[in-house]
Amino acid sequence: MTGQNRFSAVLFDCDGVLVDSETIATQALHASLQAVGIEITEHEVAETFTGHAWPRCIEIIEDMLGQPIPAHFMAHNRQEFERLMHQSLVPMAGVSAVLDGLHLPFAVVTNSRTQELAMKLEVSGLSPFFPPERRFDAERMGVAKPDPAIYQRAAQHMGVDIQQCLIIEDSYPGLTAGKASGATVWAYRPAATSEQIERLNIDLIFHDWSAWPL
After folding, report:
1. Which pLDDT does position 2 carry in this prediction?
2. Domain with 11 in it: what CATH number?
3. What pLDDT sits at residue 194?
């Protein structure tokens, strides 16, 4: 089989794949970490936290602090993230045209929380492409990447075989989950290192939605 006939469905990650939000999340978290006395660069924040579910991020932060996070940390981070999102969140260049021309069932599968995902899709203008029944977030699914179960459960909800699905990911936790799920995995502008990409045996890498291979 060739082209779209090769797959039964396409499962898209959100951050760094559909919307250009990774930089925003990094900036917001950097500001919040500095506010509680953690000296770390934005580059280090990106390397440490990108692709992880929020509960795992909290665990890492508490390890850094050597104690539970302060009560105000969550509110500060949420406010900073939402401010930056409403200010500058946009869809990835060219992704709307890809979604509009896709003749396969598709969904978004993300480590975001439910309301956070809804806000990202609304602000970026991608909400019409993803009705609620095609949104699979870590909060709703009860599992997060790198656990492959989030993708397997999403496929089950869609009534398709995960082994017949195509997954589009960028982060190492996401790529790890995708490969372990049994699906075909393509990396879009991967944040993972070349060594990680090679170790995971990613099926295809592309860097621009205008080069969408399907």
Report:
1. 44
2. 3.40.50.1000
3. 87
Confidence band for 21, pLDDT divided at 50, 70 and 90: confident
Tens-digit pLDDT profile for residues 175-208:
999 999 999 999 999 988 889 999 999 999 999 9
List the strands of the sheet with 184-188, edge to edge.
135-137, 106-110, 9-12, 165-169, 184-188, 204-206
Tell me how long the chain is: 214
What is the Cα–Cα distance from 147 to 127, expressed in whole angstroms?
A: 26
pLDDT tens across 129-159, in order? 999 999 999 999 999 999 999 999 999 999 9
Name the nearest CA neighbour of 82 among 112, 49, 111: 112
Based on the domain organization, do 84 and 125 belong to the same domain? Answer: no
Omega within 30 of 0 (cis) for the link into 146? yes
CA atoms within 13 A on the CB side of 64: 19
Segments forming the whole domain that contains residue 128: 3-20+90-211
User: Are the beta carbons of 151 and 111 closer than 8 angstroms?
Assistant: no
Spatial neighbors of 94 by CB under 8 A, at least 6 apart, are 208, 209, 210, 212
Q: For residue 212, what are the CA distances in angstroms to 38, 99, 127, 130?
A: 40, 11, 21, 19
| Rounded Cα–Cα distance for residues 200 and 136 (Å) | 23
**Angle (CA) 150 90 44, round 5°:** 65
pTM of the model: 0.81
